[in-house]
């Protein structure tokens, strides 16, 4: 199962597996802050994660199928906040952007393609960007967790 870092109302934090019980809360958080970092996505569950993201999140036809929390330590588990460093190579990196929709703001993720300019968003839409624009769109999981 995909795991998310979650903070309860009393301030406790832990990694939780996505389930029917906490899905509404996760969706509310993502609506406010953007896509939460994920871990535990691997070869053994890749098909199940793809199906889940397509069915539950409507991220079709290009769901993000890579871990977006890559540190060995968990958020809030040490006194020092993890330091995010932008990658030197843009191809294959996850980006996130907020789009205005009728109901407010919706966050979308996408992957930078091998040409280093094109982003394929989870809904299949493709956009081209300058390097400086892509650097500004890079997904920073530390900023999402600590916002």
Quick gist of this model?
This protein has helices spanning 20-33, 46-56, 131-137, 141-146; strands at residues 3-7, 13-17, 38-39, 94-101, 104-112, 118-121, 126-128. It is an alpha+beta fold.
What does this 3D model show about the protein?
The protein contains four helices and seven strands, in the order ββαβαββββαα. The two termini are 25 Å apart. The protein has helices at residues 20-33, 46-56, 131-137, 141-146; strands at 3-7, 13-17, 38-39, 94-101, 104-112, 118-121, 126-128. The protein has a four-stranded antiparallel sheet with strand order 4-5-6-7. It is globular, with a radius of gyration of 15 Å. With 147 residues, it is α+β, with helices and mostly antiparallel strands. Strand 5 and strand 6 (118-121) form a beta hairpin. The chain is 26% helix and 24% strand.
Largest sheet: 4 strands, antiparallel
> Structural class of the helices, strands and pairings?
alpha+beta
Secondary-structure element sequence?
Answer: EEHEHEEEEHH
**Assembly state (oligomeric):** single chain
Low-confidence stretches at least 5 residues in length (pLDDT < 50)? none
What is the average of the pLDDT values?
Answer: 85
Strand portion: 15-25%
Percentage of helical residues?
25-40%
- What is the strand tally? 7
- The end-to-end distance, rounded to whole angstroms, is 25 Å
Shape: globular
Number of helices: 4
Q: What is the fold's blueprint, element by element?
A:
Blueprint: E1 3-7, E2 13-17, H1 20-33, E3 38-39, H2 46-56, E4 94-101, E5 104-112, E6 118-121, E7 126-128, H3 131-137, H4 141-146
Antiparallel strand pairs: 1-2, 1-3, 4-5, 5-6, 6-7
């Amino acid at each position: 199962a995909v795991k998310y870092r979650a903070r309860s109302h009393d301030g406790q934090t832990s990694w939780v597996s996505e389930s029917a019980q906490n899905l509404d809360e996760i969706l509310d958080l993502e609506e406010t802050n953007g896509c939460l970092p994920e871990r535990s996505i691997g070869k053994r569950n890749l098909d199940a994660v793809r199906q889940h993201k397509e069915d539950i999140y409507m991220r079709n036809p290009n769901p993000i199928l890579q871990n977006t929390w890559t540190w060995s330590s968990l958020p809030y588990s040490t006194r020092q906040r993890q330091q995010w460093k932008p990658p030197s190579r843009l191809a294959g990196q996850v980006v996130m952007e907020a789009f205005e929709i009728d109901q407010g703001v919706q966050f979308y993720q996408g992957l930078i393609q091998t040409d280093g300019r094109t982003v394929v968003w989870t809904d299949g839409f493709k956009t081209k960007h300058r390097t400086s624009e892509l650097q500004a769109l890079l997904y920073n999981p530390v900023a999402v967790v600590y916002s």
